[in-house]
Specification:
single chain; 248 residues; alpha/beta; four-stranded parallel beta sheet; 11 helices; 7% strand; globular
Amino acid sequence: MGNTHAPIWFAKFGATCAVLLTFCWATPRLFPNLPQFPPLTTDQQQVVVFDRYFSLPALEVVLVGSSLSYRLKEEFFVGEQIRNAALPGASPLTGLAIIGAAPAPRPRIIAVEANILSRAIDNSLFQKFKNARRSDDGFRPLRTAAAYYQRALDDRLTLSDARKQSILNGPAITRNVERAVAATVVEWNKPYFDDAFLKKNTNALFSLVETLEAQGVRIFLYQLPYLAVVNETLYARMVRKALAQVFG
């Protein structure tokens, strides 16, 4: 009798697995903005940035840059037509190279942060996203409920208009950054920054800009402001010099 029911049991088991796998495959394609657990490492953060960039609908304007621009929250831009693709621990070269290589539609405008030019293109990240392929989509639905809960705890879900306004109306947050500023000044005044390497990266940036502009994308360079003491460090001055030499 046990043998009689065995084929039925296996059929039910197989059907259940097939339904589950179909659900796992279909859900991230039907609901592209499913949350993920907060990344724990810089590498994970970088992957999440472009996994999100290629999963969500294209917007008019894209930011690329380093950790400085990564902190600019999309929720606070007027019109919310800006996608932030800045990479923590990386440079604008990587983000620009990925957008330029991927077959996905180009944004109309790319704003390029030009504060950090001491890092070349991250080839590992570039290879991962140059064809705009997603990673690990199949298993994301199994973690969605828990991720929603975690992101709600972290206040990472999209803010309501009332919440945004309450933040903007509140007093500015003050933080003690003296130690971090002092460390940055010491580091950025060290003589190991190489003029030729900065010039090489700036030329690479210029080449990427030319390529994308030829495809109809408007490119704007910007620099986020430093404190005066940081602005006059050796590194900050060398970056400005390289930009002036290459871009004029």
